[in-house]
Amino acid sequence: MHFITGGYFNGKAKWVRDQFGLSERSDYLWLSAYQSNKLELPFQNKEKQLLIIEGVEQYIKKWIDLDIDIQIIRAQAKDLVEKAVNWEQAHKNNKLILIGTDISKGIVPIEKKDRQWRDITGWVYQDIVANSDSVYMVWYGISKRIK
User: Fold this and answer.
1) Which residues share a beta bridge with 138?
2) Distance CA 131, CA 2 (A)
3) Cβ distance 104 to 124 under 8 Å?
4) 52, 59, 80, 146: which could form a disulfide with 97 (CB 3.0–4.6 Å)?
5) Please, where are the H alpha helices in 67-111?
6) Cα separation of 92 and 96, whole Å?
7) Is this model's pTM higher than 0.85 or not?
8) Cβ atoms within 10 Å, residue 98
9) What keywords does the record list, in alphabetical order (predicted)?
10) Cα gap 56→7, rounded to integer Å
11) In terms of Cα–Cα distance, which of 56, 50, 51 is closest to 6?
12) What is the C-alpha to C-alpha distance for residues 100 and 3, in angstroms, rounded to an integer?
């Protein structure tokens, strides 16, 4: 599993497209919260060996907006990370790339839901990073490997 993070509109998606040569490939599935793609069991996909999930923080925000308890959200996210690891291990060519915007920097949000979103996103990112083979930060189109 690979995790790509950085600020909003800092070139994460373009970096992934370039780094993994997606313009020359067709064996991937790209799910984006920004395009309103639903995240319904993508790990059951047997046709595509490269799975890219963009907007991890936005999928988390949707759970927050549904007023789901933060502990349940964390448990659901951990379950998805575990399913991702199992999916990758099921076949040697399976590869997962997660793209999540860093929303932890800056002013602490005033609204409770926004603080919960920031906190849960941080916890989920920690779980993702713990299970990732590599982690990259992309700022202004420049990447730095941090794991």
Assistant:
1) 143
2) 9
3) no
4) 52
5) 70-90
6) 12
7) yes
8) 26
9) ATP-binding, Cobalamin biosynthesis, GTP-binding, Kinase, Nucleotide-binding, Nucleotidyltransferase, Transferase
10) 13
11) 56
12) 8
pLDDT tens digit sequence for 18-54: 999 999 988 898 999 998 877 766 666 667 789 999 9
Q: Which two tokens stand for residue 89?
A: 């291990």
CA 64/CA 120 separation, integer angstroms: 9
Q: Is 7 helix (H, G, I), strand (E, B) or coil?
A: coil
Alpha-carbon distance of 37 to 57, in angstroms, equals 14
Percent of the chain with pLDDT over 90: 67
Tell me the two tokens of residue 122.
């941080």
Helix (H, G, I), strand (E, B) or coil at 144: strand
- Rounding to the nearest 10 degrees, give the CA dihedral for residues 44, 46, 49, 51: -30
Token pair belonging to 113: 């839901």
